Amino acid sequence: MKYFRRIFIVTATAFIVFLLYCEFGGKFILNDSDKQMIAYEIRSSEEIPDNFTNFYNTIYPNSLSENSWNYIFSALIDQKAPRKECHCNQMAYRFFPILEINHKKGIDQFLTARFIENKFSQKECLQFNFNHFDFLENRKGLTKISKSLFNKEIKDLQPLEMAEILALYENPVRNNRNRNPENAKKRTAYLYNLYIKNSNSKN
């Protein structure tokens, strides 16, 4: 009986230590220059107006409140779980190749994501992702794509227009109105209808 109790205590302790490492390990694997670079990139990103943030959060409910732990659990259930529903995890994925981490391992990306999430909000990560996303055709960032497609400020976009931008964000080649008009129209309509459906369910 004592043997099994010791095994249980050792196993439980190891599990707790592992969870703590996952939660706070990013603080130790990232050097100061990487931490400063991440902080600068997030804080210097252009703020996205509430209309677009609310639209995105309606398409992906709770996307501004969940984190990388939620994404990992979702991925365990469904390997096709979209990374773009977790903005800070997506940001860590973009940064990971250029980070100066010694002997990089797969788990280090998760540690980086948790480091970001412990210091910044999902909304701040969302702003970074959209402002640094290449929509192709010399249209990098949300402001440029809004001007290019609709000649509008982001704050003036209508839901159907934001749906087209989100379709491009998902796949800037497949959902491009000039290259693949049918795919672009179909995906835009799907996202717009999903927005309407989710909006109605809130009421």
TrEMBL record:
<protein>
    <submittedName>
        <fullName>Transglycosylase</fullName>
    </submittedName>
</protein>
<feature type="domain" description="Glycosyl transferase family 51">
    <location>
        <begin position="104"/>
        <end position="191"/>
    </location>
</feature>
<dbReference type="InterPro" id="IPR001264">
    <property type="entry name" value="Glyco_trans_51"/>
</dbReference>
<dbReference type="Pfam" id="PF00912">
    <property type="entry name" value="Transgly"/>
</dbReference>
<dbReference type="InterPro" id="IPR023346">
    <property type="entry name" value="Lysozyme-like_dom_sf"/>
</dbReference>
<dbReference type="InterPro" id="IPR036950">
    <property type="entry name" value="PBP_transglycosylase"/>
</dbReference>
